[in-house]
Protein backbone atom coordinates (compact mmCIF):
# COMPACT_ATOMS: atom_id res chain seq x y z
CA UNK A 1 0.00 0.00 0.00
CA UNK A 2 1.31 3.47 -0.95
CA UNK A 3 1.18 6.13 1.76
CA UNK A 4 1.06 9.59 0.18
CA UNK A 5 3.57 12.01 1.69
CA UNK A 6 3.33 14.83 -0.84
CA UNK A 7 2.95 17.56 1.76
CA UNK A 8 4.37 17.31 5.28
CA UNK A 9 3.65 20.39 7.40
CA UNK A 10 5.75 21.54 10.36
CA UNK A 11 3.90 23.16 13.24
CA UNK A 12 5.58 24.88 16.17
CA UNK A 13 4.74 22.73 19.20
CA UNK A 14 4.32 25.80 21.41
CA UNK A 15 1.73 27.40 19.12
CA UNK A 16 -1.67 26.19 20.29
CA UNK A 17 -3.47 28.07 17.51
CA UNK A 18 -1.39 26.41 14.78
CA UNK A 19 -1.88 22.96 16.36
CA UNK A 20 -5.64 23.55 16.34
CA UNK A 21 -5.72 25.02 12.85
CA UNK A 22 -3.81 22.04 11.43
CA UNK A 23 -6.90 19.86 12.02
CA UNK A 24 -8.46 21.53 8.97
CA UNK A 25 -5.35 21.73 6.75
CA UNK A 26 -5.19 18.97 4.09
CA UNK A 27 -1.48 18.14 4.44
CA UNK A 28 -0.72 14.44 3.98
CA UNK A 29 1.33 14.37 7.19
CA UNK A 30 2.23 16.63 10.09
CA UNK A 31 5.42 17.26 12.07
CA UNK A 32 4.70 18.65 15.54
CA UNK A 33 7.94 20.46 16.24
CA UNK A 34 9.85 20.62 19.50
CA UNK A 35 13.15 21.74 17.94
CA UNK A 36 13.89 24.97 16.07
CA UNK A 37 10.38 26.43 16.13
CA UNK A 38 10.21 26.32 19.95
CA UNK A 39 12.20 28.66 22.22
CA UNK A 40 14.20 27.11 25.11
CA UNK A 41 11.84 28.40 27.81
CA UNK A 42 8.82 26.84 26.05
CA UNK A 43 10.35 23.38 25.40
CA UNK A 44 8.74 21.53 28.30
CA UNK A 45 5.25 22.96 27.85
CA UNK A 46 5.48 22.25 24.09
CA UNK A 47 6.50 18.63 24.78
CA UNK A 48 3.39 18.06 26.90
CA UNK A 49 1.09 19.83 24.43
CA UNK A 50 2.43 17.98 21.41
CA UNK A 51 2.28 14.53 23.03
CA UNK A 52 -1.31 15.19 24.08
CA UNK A 53 -2.21 16.34 20.53
CA UNK A 54 -0.87 13.27 18.68
CA UNK A 55 -4.24 11.50 18.42
CA UNK A 56 -6.20 14.58 17.30
CA UNK A 57 -5.67 14.58 13.53
CA UNK A 58 -7.78 11.70 12.21
CA UNK A 59 -6.12 9.21 9.90
CA UNK A 60 -3.19 11.44 8.90
CA UNK A 61 0.37 10.56 9.83
CA UNK A 62 1.32 12.66 12.82
CA UNK A 63 4.98 12.80 13.82
CA UNK A 64 6.95 14.56 16.55
CA UNK A 65 10.27 16.28 15.86
CA UNK A 66 12.41 15.95 18.99
CA UNK A 67 15.38 18.11 19.89
CA UNK A 68 18.82 17.05 18.64
CA UNK A 69 20.91 14.28 20.18
CA UNK A 70 23.39 16.73 21.70
CA UNK A 71 20.77 18.84 23.50
CA UNK A 72 19.57 18.73 27.10
CA UNK A 73 15.99 18.04 25.93
CA UNK A 74 16.64 15.07 23.62
CA UNK A 75 16.31 12.18 26.11
CA UNK A 76 13.11 13.48 27.71
CA UNK A 77 11.63 14.27 24.28
CA UNK A 78 12.30 10.71 23.09
CA UNK A 79 10.83 9.15 26.25
CA UNK A 80 7.69 11.29 25.97
CA UNK A 81 7.35 10.62 22.24
CA UNK A 82 7.81 6.87 22.79
CA UNK A 83 4.83 6.78 25.12
CA UNK A 84 2.70 9.11 22.97
CA UNK A 85 3.16 6.68 20.04
CA UNK A 86 3.12 8.99 16.98
CA UNK A 87 3.56 7.63 13.45
CA UNK A 88 7.22 8.60 13.71
CA UNK A 89 9.80 10.43 15.72
CA UNK A 90 11.61 12.94 13.50
CA UNK A 91 15.21 13.29 14.66
CA UNK A 92 17.19 16.34 13.52
CA UNK A 93 20.86 16.37 12.49
CA UNK A 94 21.43 12.61 12.35
CA UNK A 95 25.06 12.05 11.36
CA UNK A 96 25.80 8.32 11.67
CA UNK A 97 24.39 4.80 11.83
CA UNK A 98 25.47 4.63 15.50
CA UNK A 99 23.15 7.53 16.30
CA UNK A 100 20.26 5.72 14.60
CA UNK A 101 21.00 2.63 16.71
CA UNK A 102 20.91 4.76 19.89
CA UNK A 103 17.56 6.29 18.90
CA UNK A 104 16.17 2.84 18.09
CA UNK A 105 17.30 1.51 21.48
CA UNK A 106 15.84 4.50 23.34
CA UNK A 107 12.47 4.02 21.59
CA UNK A 108 12.44 0.33 22.52
CA UNK A 109 13.37 1.08 26.15
CA UNK A 110 10.67 3.76 26.24
CA UNK A 111 8.08 1.19 25.13
CA UNK A 112 7.33 2.83 21.77
CA UNK A 113 4.76 0.85 19.76
CA UNK A 114 5.97 -0.87 16.57
CA UNK A 115 4.09 1.65 14.44
CA UNK A 116 6.31 4.49 15.70
CA UNK A 117 9.03 4.77 13.04
CA UNK A 118 12.18 6.89 12.82
CA UNK A 119 12.39 9.74 10.31
CA UNK A 120 16.01 10.91 10.12
CA UNK A 121 16.83 14.47 9.14
CA UNK A 122 19.88 14.88 6.94
CA UNK A 123 21.14 18.43 7.28
CA UNK A 124 24.89 18.55 7.77
CA UNK A 125 27.85 17.95 5.45
CA UNK A 126 28.77 14.79 7.37
CA UNK A 127 25.21 13.48 6.96
CA UNK A 128 25.43 13.98 3.18
CA UNK A 129 28.59 11.85 3.18
CA UNK A 130 27.06 9.18 5.47
CA UNK A 131 23.58 9.18 3.92
CA UNK A 132 23.62 5.55 2.84
CA UNK A 133 24.83 4.15 6.20
CA UNK A 134 22.24 6.28 8.02
CA UNK A 135 19.41 5.16 5.72
CA UNK A 136 20.37 1.49 6.03
CA UNK A 137 20.96 1.54 9.80
CA UNK A 138 17.53 0.29 10.91
CA UNK A 139 14.32 -1.18 9.51
CA UNK A 140 12.55 1.21 11.87
CA UNK A 141 13.95 4.12 9.84
CA UNK A 142 11.50 4.64 7.00
CA UNK A 143 11.86 8.26 5.85
CA UNK A 144 14.75 10.67 5.20
CA UNK A 145 13.97 14.37 5.58
CA UNK A 146 16.20 17.08 4.10
CA UNK A 147 17.08 20.01 6.35
CA UNK A 148 18.12 22.54 3.76
CA UNK A 149 18.33 25.55 6.09
CA UNK A 150 20.89 23.87 8.32
CA UNK A 151 22.69 22.42 5.31
CA UNK A 152 23.02 25.86 3.67
CA UNK A 153 24.25 27.31 6.96
CA UNK A 154 26.90 24.60 7.40
CA UNK A 155 28.05 24.92 3.78
CA UNK A 156 28.17 28.75 3.98
CA UNK A 157 25.96 28.52 0.88
CA UNK A 158 23.55 31.13 -0.43
CA UNK A 159 19.87 30.53 -1.23
CA UNK A 160 19.59 31.04 -4.98
CA UNK A 161 16.86 30.12 -7.47
CA UNK A 162 17.50 26.58 -8.67
CA UNK A 163 19.41 25.70 -5.45
CA UNK A 164 22.70 25.02 -7.29
CA UNK A 165 24.82 25.05 -4.10
CA UNK A 166 22.64 22.37 -2.47
CA UNK A 167 22.11 20.00 -5.37
CA UNK A 168 25.18 17.83 -4.71
CA UNK A 169 23.96 17.05 -1.18
CA UNK A 170 20.34 16.57 -2.24
CA UNK A 171 21.44 14.10 -4.93
CA UNK A 172 23.58 12.07 -2.50
CA UNK A 173 20.61 11.71 -0.17
CA UNK A 174 18.28 10.75 -3.02
CA UNK A 175 20.73 8.06 -4.10
CA UNK A 176 20.87 6.77 -0.52
CA UNK A 177 17.07 6.73 -0.21
CA UNK A 178 16.54 4.83 -3.43
CA UNK A 179 19.43 2.42 -2.79
CA UNK A 180 17.89 1.46 0.58
CA UNK A 181 14.17 1.67 -0.28
CA UNK A 182 13.41 4.66 1.94
CA UNK A 183 10.99 7.53 1.34
CA UNK A 184 12.66 10.94 0.99
CA UNK A 185 11.19 14.41 1.59
CA UNK A 186 12.59 17.68 0.28
CA UNK A 187 13.43 20.62 2.57
CA UNK A 188 11.32 23.72 3.30
CA UNK A 189 10.89 26.93 1.27
CA UNK A 190 11.25 29.88 3.64
CA UNK A 191 9.47 32.69 1.75
CA UNK A 192 5.86 31.92 2.64
CA UNK A 193 4.53 34.78 0.46
CA UNK A 194 6.34 33.67 -2.71
CA UNK A 195 4.04 30.96 -4.10
CA UNK A 196 5.49 31.00 -7.69
CA UNK A 197 9.01 30.49 -6.24
CA UNK A 198 7.66 27.73 -3.99
CA UNK A 199 5.94 26.01 -6.94
CA UNK A 200 9.16 26.11 -8.95
CA UNK A 201 11.00 24.43 -6.05
CA UNK A 202 8.27 21.75 -5.77
CA UNK A 203 8.60 21.04 -9.52
CA UNK A 204 12.35 20.73 -9.14
CA UNK A 205 12.02 18.40 -6.15
CA UNK A 206 9.53 16.18 -7.99
CA UNK A 207 11.74 16.06 -11.09
CA UNK A 208 14.72 14.98 -8.94
CA UNK A 209 12.62 12.15 -7.46
CA UNK A 210 11.57 13.39 -4.01
CA UNK A 211 8.36 11.78 -2.71
CA UNK A 212 7.14 15.07 -1.24
CA UNK A 213 8.19 18.27 0.47
CA UNK A 214 8.26 19.59 4.01
CA UNK A 215 6.29 22.81 4.49
CA UNK A 216 6.04 25.65 6.99
CA UNK A 217 2.78 27.43 6.10
CA UNK A 218 -0.79 26.38 5.23
CA UNK A 219 -0.64 28.34 1.93
CA UNK A 220 2.01 25.90 0.68
CA UNK A 221 -0.17 22.78 1.07
CA UNK A 222 -2.45 23.03 -1.98
CA UNK A 223 0.29 23.73 -4.58
CA UNK A 224 2.47 21.03 -3.05
CA UNK A 225 -0.30 18.40 -3.11
CA UNK A 226 -1.05 19.27 -6.73
CA UNK A 227 2.55 19.21 -7.95
CA UNK A 228 3.55 15.98 -6.18
CA UNK A 229 0.40 14.12 -7.33
CA UNK A 230 0.41 12.44 -10.75
CA UNK A 231 -1.31 14.67 -13.34
CA UNK A 232 -4.30 13.44 -15.41
CA UNK A 233 -1.95 13.22 -18.42
CA UNK A 234 0.51 11.03 -16.47
CA UNK A 235 -2.29 8.79 -15.23
CA UNK A 236 -3.67 8.40 -18.76
CA UNK A 237 -0.23 7.65 -20.20
CA UNK A 238 0.51 5.15 -17.42
CA UNK A 239 -2.71 3.25 -18.15
CA UNK A 240 -1.91 3.18 -21.86
CA UNK A 241 1.64 1.95 -21.18
CA UNK A 242 0.33 -0.96 -19.10
CA UNK A 243 -2.36 -1.87 -21.65
CA UNK A 244 0.02 -1.67 -24.62
CA UNK A 245 2.68 -3.73 -22.87
CA UNK A 246 0.23 -6.43 -21.74
CA UNK A 247 -1.15 -6.66 -25.30
CA UNK A 248 2.41 -6.91 -26.68
CA UNK A 249 3.28 -9.67 -24.22
CA UNK A 250 0.30 -11.72 -25.39
CA UNK A 251 1.86 -11.52 -28.87
CA UNK A 252 5.18 -12.70 -27.46
CA UNK A 253 6.88 -9.26 -27.64
CA UNK A 254 8.80 -7.64 -24.75
CA UNK A 255 9.03 -4.17 -26.21
CA UNK A 256 6.45 -1.81 -27.72
CA UNK A 257 6.04 1.91 -28.43
CA UNK A 258 3.52 4.31 -26.87
CA UNK A 259 3.29 7.85 -28.29
CA UNK A 260 6.35 6.94 -30.36
CA UNK A 261 8.49 6.07 -27.32
CA UNK A 262 10.00 2.71 -26.46
CA UNK A 263 8.32 0.88 -23.57
CA UNK A 264 9.91 -2.05 -21.74
CA UNK A 265 8.96 -3.75 -18.48
CA UNK A 266 10.86 -1.15 -16.42
CA UNK A 267 8.56 1.57 -17.80
CA UNK A 268 5.60 -0.60 -16.84
CA UNK A 269 6.91 -0.80 -13.25
CA UNK A 270 7.08 2.98 -13.18
CA UNK A 271 3.56 3.29 -14.65
CA UNK A 272 2.24 0.98 -11.90
CA UNK A 273 3.98 3.13 -9.25
CA UNK A 274 2.32 6.27 -10.69
CA UNK A 275 -1.13 4.62 -10.67
CA UNK A 276 -0.66 3.36 -7.10
CA UNK A 277 0.22 6.90 -5.97
CA UNK A 278 -2.77 8.35 -7.86
CA UNK A 279 -5.04 5.81 -6.16
CA UNK A 280 -3.56 6.55 -2.71
CA UNK A 281 -3.96 10.29 -3.18
CA UNK A 282 -7.66 9.86 -4.06
CA UNK A 283 -8.02 8.43 -0.52
C1 LIG B 1 6.42 31.17 9.02
C2 LIG B 1 5.42 31.57 10.10
C3 LIG B 1 6.16 32.14 11.31
C4 LIG B 1 4.49 32.65 9.52
O1 LIG B 1 3.59 32.98 10.55
P1 LIG B 1 2.45 34.06 10.35
O2 LIG B 1 3.02 35.32 9.73
O3 LIG B 1 1.75 34.19 11.67
O4 LIG B 1 1.50 33.38 9.30
P2 LIG B 1 0.08 33.80 8.87
O5 LIG B 1 -0.40 34.99 9.61
O6 LIG B 1 0.06 33.88 7.39
O7 LIG B 1 -0.80 32.54 9.33
C5 LIG B 1 -2.09 32.36 8.86
C6 LIG B 1 -2.81 31.34 9.68
O8 LIG B 1 -2.17 30.07 9.50
C7 LIG B 1 -1.73 29.56 10.77
N1 LIG B 1 -0.42 28.92 10.56
C8 LIG B 1 0.70 29.50 10.15
N2 LIG B 1 1.68 28.60 10.03
C9 LIG B 1 1.13 27.43 10.39
C10 LIG B 1 1.65 26.11 10.46
N3 LIG B 1 2.94 25.85 10.16
N4 LIG B 1 0.80 25.13 10.81
C11 LIG B 1 -0.49 25.39 11.13
N5 LIG B 1 -1.05 26.63 11.07
C12 LIG B 1 -0.24 27.62 10.71
C13 LIG B 1 -1.62 30.78 11.67
O9 LIG B 1 -1.77 30.35 13.02
C14 LIG B 1 -2.79 31.60 11.18
O10 LIG B 1 -3.99 31.04 11.70
P3 LIG B 1 -5.25 31.94 12.02
O11 LIG B 1 -4.75 32.97 13.00
O12 LIG B 1 -6.27 31.01 12.58
O13 LIG B 1 -5.67 32.58 10.72
C15 LIG B 1 4.54 30.36 10.52
O14 LIG B 1 3.88 29.93 9.37
C16 LIG B 1 5.28 29.26 11.19
O15 LIG B 1 5.56 29.33 12.38
N6 LIG B 1 5.57 28.18 10.46
C17 LIG B 1 6.22 27.00 10.97
C18 LIG B 1 7.66 27.27 11.32
C19 LIG B 1 8.35 26.03 11.76
O16 LIG B 1 7.72 25.07 12.18
N7 LIG B 1 9.69 26.00 11.65
C20 LIG B 1 10.48 24.87 12.00
C21 LIG B 1 10.51 23.86 10.92
S1 LIG B 1 11.42 24.32 9.51
C22 LIG B 1 12.97 23.67 9.79
O17 LIG B 1 13.41 23.71 10.89
C23 LIG B 1 13.60 22.94 8.66
C24 LIG B 1 14.94 22.25 8.85
O18 LIG B 1 15.30 21.89 10.13
C25 LIG B 1 16.04 22.96 8.13
O19 LIG B 1 17.17 22.99 8.63
O20 LIG B 1 15.78 23.38 6.98
MG1 LIG C 1 17.29 22.06 10.62
TrEMBL record:
The keyword Metal-binding applies. Keywords: Lyase, Magnesium, Metal-binding. GO terms for biological process: oxaloacetate metabolic process. Mg(2+) binds at residues 123, 150. Substrate binds at residues 65, 123. InterPro entries: Aldolase/citrate-lyase_domain (IPR005000), Citrate_lyase_beta/mcl1/mcl2 (IPR011206), Pyrv/PenolPyrv_kinase-like_dom (IPR015813), Pyrv_kinase-like_dom_sf (IPR040442). Its cofactor is Mg(2+). One of its GO terms (molecular function) is lyase activity. Residues 6-218 form the HpcH/HpaI aldolase/citrate lyase domain. This is Citrate lyase subunit beta / citryl-CoA lyase. The lineage of its organism: Bacteria, Bacillati, Actinomycetota, Actinomycetes, Pseudonocardiales.
Amino acid sequence: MTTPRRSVLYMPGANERALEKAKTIPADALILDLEDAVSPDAKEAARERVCAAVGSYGSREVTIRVNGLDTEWHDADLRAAASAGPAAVVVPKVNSAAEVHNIERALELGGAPDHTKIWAMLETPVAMLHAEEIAAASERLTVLVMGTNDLAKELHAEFVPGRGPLLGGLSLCLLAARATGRVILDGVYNDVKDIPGFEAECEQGRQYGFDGKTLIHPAQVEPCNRIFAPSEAEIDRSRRIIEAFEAAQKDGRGVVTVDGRMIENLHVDNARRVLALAEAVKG
